[in-house]
Amino acid sequence: MSRAPGRSEGPAPDRPEPGLAPEAVRADLVTWAEHVMGADGLIPAAHHRLLMARLQAVAEGTIDRLMVLMPPGAAKSTYSSVLFPVWWFTRHPGTSVIATCHTADLAKHFARQARSLVTEHAAALGYELQGGERATSRWVTSTRGQYFATGVRGPLTGRRADLAIIDDPIRGMADAESPRQRNYLWDWYRSDLITRLKPRGRVVIVMARWHQDDLAARLLEHNEEEWTVLRLPALAEVDDPLGRLPGQALWPEWEDEAALLRKRDQVGERVWSALFQQDPRPDQDSLFEVTKIEIIAAPPDSAGGMIVRAWDLAATASDGRNDPDYTVGVKLLRDAAGRVIVLDVIRQRTSALAVEHALLGAAEADGKSVLISLPEDPGQAGKSQVLSYVRKLAGYQLKTSRDTGSKLTRALPVAAQIEAGNLALVHAAWNHDFIDELRDFPFGRKDDQVDALARAFSDAAEMSAPTRRISLPFLAR
């Protein structure tokens, strides 16, 4: 069996005894994986263990639609397409598995590895290949389990599946960029694959993201609620499922942060965001020319300027399955010369109570000289929220107002300042996510920081002294 390196920081466990009881293997996917990988001195890394926990939940029936999004080289196929279906038959001996990939050759490659595991570890598995079985892409077990592997263009008529595994359904960037190929894959999934599923059948999709309209995107748009999504980017982001700090590598024993950053420079931001961060972005021009944003080492003198902390409020915490909006507080200085400096950004996805604590804490930390700007949502709930903050922020400068016009319209004045080279950020950990969101706007997945920035700039401009005159060709387009 060909395996991606999976050495951990610690020593590998002793190789299990050849007589490992089938009951022990059947009980736990990790036990099975360690039994196989330990022969080569390899043990599952942290992300492999998390993946196996989700796969075991599929086998146990608590998850029936699992989407695994990981970068290339994470060994996701080793665990999902080789180890898992072989172990599946220990739990579901008389069932059928259909395994598909972008081409029949890749599907056969995984099928060959899985078949070899059955031959090599029959005693531990409690089953073997049916006598005389020699085919690579289709084989039957001694307990009547059926395995069939094919490409997405391969025949499925006449087949039925209790478990369908779709691994790397996209062949490459050319297919990902082709609307025709994306439509073909979508139609194949709906008409060929899903119609082969038995009642209570389960689906596992394992892939790296390629495009904002790829199969994963369409499935989540069509019915996000039915999918359990395990998204593990190469470099961690906030609320990482593994508990990594932002910027930490997924598999540092295999590819550390420095190697990943070097790869990021080589492949470019669009490919990096899609394949490695599982966050594909459209290939369109951004509103903001982020290359003109200056990063400064320390805040400038604020004498004679105006400081605003503007908020864009949300109140839904992340539970690992949803993708709620962020609550964002942008602290912005417009100095006496008219230069715009973003001093600080608070960005979090939490409950309404935690949002209130963050807002009140920021007010205390910023001091009473800083204007606090809050949006007032329409309706009675919005009015009640604002009145509550007015009472709790007594003694602070507070402005509330409703947002008017589209998000794009509200962002235009800030875009003009950026184009003129008139906006800077104080160097901090939040810079990268902030610039990324600006770069993607208005096509990106999130725009909470843009909304808060636009509000902060508007209020600072309204309340500060007249600024120096600058040429703004952006608004003249």
Written overview of the protein:
This protein is of the alpha/beta class and 477 residues long. The protein has 2 domains: 255 residues, 3-Layer(aba) Sandwich (Rossmann fold); 187 residues, Nucleotidyltransferase, domain 5 (2-Layer Sandwich). Helix content is 38%, strand content 17%. The chain contains 16 helices and 14 strands. The strands form 2 sheets. It has a 7-stranded mixed β-sheet with strand order 3-4-2-5-6-1-7, covered by helices on one side. Helix 4 crosses helix 5. The longest helix is centred in the first third of the chain and has 17 residues. The chain is elongated. The N and C termini lie far apart (60 Å). The relative contact order is 0.09.
Quick tags:
single chain; 477 residues; alpha/beta; Rossmann fold; Nucleotidyltransferase, domain 5; seven-stranded mixed sheet; 16 helices; 14 strands; 38% helix; elongated
Q: Enumerate how many helices there are, as a single number.
A: 16
Number of E strands = 14
Query: What can be said about the biggest beta sheet?
Result: 7 strands, mixed
Strand content: 15-25%
Compute the average pLDDT: 88
Oligomer: single chain
General shape: elongated
CATH architecture of the largest domain: 3-Layer(aba) Sandwich
The first-to-last residue Cα distance is 60 Å
Q: What is the helix/strand order?
A: HHHEHEHHEEEHHEHEHHEEEEHEHEHEHH
User: Strands of the largest sheet, in order across it?
Assistant: 3-4-2-5-6-1-7
CATH class of the largest domain: Alpha Beta
Q: Which topology of the largest domain does CATH recognise? A: Rossmann fold
